[in-house]
Amino acid sequence: MGKPATEASVMIVGGGPSGLATAAYLHHLSIPYILLEREDYFASIWQKYAYDRVHLHLAKQFCELPLMPIPSTYPIYLSRNEFLRYLNDYVSRFDIKPTYQRSVEAAEYDAALEKWKVTARNLSSGEVEDYCSRFLVVATGETCDPMTPEVQGVESFNGEILHSTKYKNGDRFGRKSVLVVGSGNSGMEIALDLANSGAKTAIVVRSPVHILSRAMINAGLVLLKYLPYNWVDSLMTMLSKAVYGDFSKYGIKRPKEGPFALKVKYGKYPVVDVGTVAKIKSTEIQVLPGILSVKGNTVLFENGKEFPFDVIVFATGFKRSTNQWLKGDDYLLGENGLPKPSFPNHWKGKNGLYCVGLARRGLYGSAMDAENIARDIKAHLF
């Protein structure tokens, strides 16, 4: 016979900020839990996969986890190391002890037992372990598994190809010709970092994108408390035009819908400019359209032009793999791993299933979800 299943009131899958926030609030309410994390660290995106210069783009009051404010001695916009210091203090304060190197392979509700059965593989030993809980919290995050698109002929590329999760800084790319694919915040900031390091830098911008400053973003978040988002969108777009001018001559178009409308409807974040726009205007960063194909070191673009590159960095985001292991849920999460119910009812499923940090509302949304989930679990337990 195999080992009996390890039991707890709550199982949390994922040790990023969302999982930590949930664990902290459960601890605060004296509710026992087990937190499974497939990596060697909590917040692995921040500890292991983030580039060196990354900062939180939102002011710190929008990035606090529940029950512990970010200290007043910290700057308004935290660096990667400052945010990790905060998370380390958070984990210590709430005595959070994830079970590391556990990759969940299946989770299914047992109606007879009225409990969730979870199977996880111990990545150190290779053994399969069984867990059992009344409640299951999916905290695997929006940034779960790196995604690289299929590009015709990319296998023939003679240079280096890497995903943004493997990029740390531009030191070793000086004087090389580097193509960044992806025009979200990571792509734009990596392009800036490369240009600052002396690389001949180009970035693929396929879709229209809003570009705002940090001040605009944070002013918009404050105004959203008092004004409809279409009013705030109009103001943000007007400010962006006034500050940055016409992007179209550089190969960048503005979307027809406003930045906060796109965020709410599609989870598409505006780009927060930290210096990239100036580099584009000075031609230190070249903007290119979508890629048609790759042949050797030459990349052919949709405008018919082709250029040679030494390195391609795919800043093309992430996909979620929840649907591969979560069985029997036809209500809470869709095929894309995001909630089907609309905000603010997105966090609660059926049979004790919850999700945290998947509403595309950043760390602030994770904090709200964690509190809602912990309090709902307490109401069912006591």
Write the layout of secondary structure elements.
Layout (H helix, E strand, L loop, with lengths): L5 E8 L3 H12 L4 E5 L6 H4 L32 H14 L5 E2 L1 E9 L4 E8 L5 E11 L6 E2 L13 E4 L13 E5 L3 H12 L3 E5 L6 E2 L1 H10 L5 H16 L14 H8 L4 E2 L3 H6 L3 E4 L2 E5 L2 E4 L4 E3 L2 E4 L3 E2 L2 H4 E2 L25 E3 L6 H20 L1
Parallel strand pairs: 1-2, 1-6, 2-3, 4-19, 6-20, 8-17, 9-10, 9-17, 10-13, 11-12
Antiparallel strand pairs: 4-5, 5-6, 7-18, 14-15, 15-16
Structural class: alpha/beta
Query: What overall form do the CA principal axes indicate?
Result: globular
Q: Into which percentage range does the β-strand content fall?
A: 15-25%
- Succession of helices and strands: EHEHHEEEEEEEHEEHHHEHEEEEEEHEEH
CA radius of gyration is 22 Å
Helix content: 25-40%
Number of strands: 20
* Average pLDDT number: 94
